[in-house]
């Protein structure tokens, strides 16, 4: 099931750049085509990494069944800074990941996280953990459900409890349970 998810997600990333556009202006179509071409030129392993990374970030954003604009913007910023994507690429990847998470999150969460664990280094997984807290804190408050979701993801990533504590320590002032 996880493999099908990635194939579907990557299929969304590698969207057609054909001439089919009736509602967009010519400049918009050209701009979109340029962004899609840039994404299509990413190495497949980088595209898989970014797809899983973004999906897991949205897993935390959607933990409370609501994805705020602040959370979405934080994920876009993370994709730009960590994923080295342009603003327009980060926006596109973010929107695809958001949609995929809303549609398939319940059934794909563990599978995507396991795939990420199997294809990344411990340092990349710890970086993701820190980014998860940054997304949860983007609205100045980390709810208990968001913190619990991050803890579950941490376990699924095979990280030590100490890794979770160290990452959470940076955001203590945002934890709703401590306010």
Write the layout of secondary structure elements.
Layout: H1 2-13, H2 26-40, H3 44-61, H4 69-81, H5 87-119, H6 122-136, H7 144-156, H8 161-169
Helix pairs in contact: 1-3, 1-5, 3-4, 3-5, 3-6, 3-7, 4-5, 4-6, 6-7, 6-8, 7-8
Q: What's the shape?
A: globular
Derived from helix and strand composition plus strand pairing, the structural class reads: mainly alpha
pLDDT below 50 for ≥5 consecutive residues: which ranges?
Answer: 15-22
Number of domains: 1
State the CATH superfamily name: TerB-like
- The portion of residues forming beta strands comes to under 5%
Could you characterize what this model shows?
With 179 residues, this protein is mainly alpha-helical. The protein has a single domain, classed as TerB-like (Orthogonal Bundle). The chain has helices at residues 2-13, 26-40, 44-61, 69-81, 87-119, 122-136, 144-156, 161-169. It is globular and about 50 Å long.
What key attributes describe this structure?
179 residues, globular
Give a quick rundown of the structure.
With 179 residues, the protein is mainly alpha-helical. It is 72% helix and 0% strand.
């Amino acid at each position: 099931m996880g493999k099908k998810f990635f194939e579907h997600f990557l299929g969304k990333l590698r969207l057609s750049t054909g001439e089919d556009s009736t509602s967009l202006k010519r400049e918009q179509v050209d701009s979109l085509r340029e962004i899609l071409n840039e994404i299509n030129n990413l190495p497949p392993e980088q595209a898989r990494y970014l797809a899983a990374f973004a999906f897991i970030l949205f897993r935390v954003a959607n933990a409370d069944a609501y994805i705020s604009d602040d959370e979405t913007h934080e994920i876009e910023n993370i994709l730009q800074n960590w994923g080295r994507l342009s603003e327009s690429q980060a926006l596109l990847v973010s929107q695809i990941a958001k949609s995929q998470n809303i549609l398939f999150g319940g059934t794909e969460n563990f599978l995507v996280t396991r795939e990420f664990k199997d294809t990344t280094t411990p340092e990349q997984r710890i970086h993701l953990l820190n980014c998860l807290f940054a997304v949860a804190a983007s609205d100045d408050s980390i709810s208990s459900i968001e913190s619990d979701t991050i803890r579950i993801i941490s376990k699924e990533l095979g990280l030590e409890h100490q890794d979770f504590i160290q990452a959470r320590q940076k955001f203590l002032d945002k934890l709703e349970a401590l306010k």
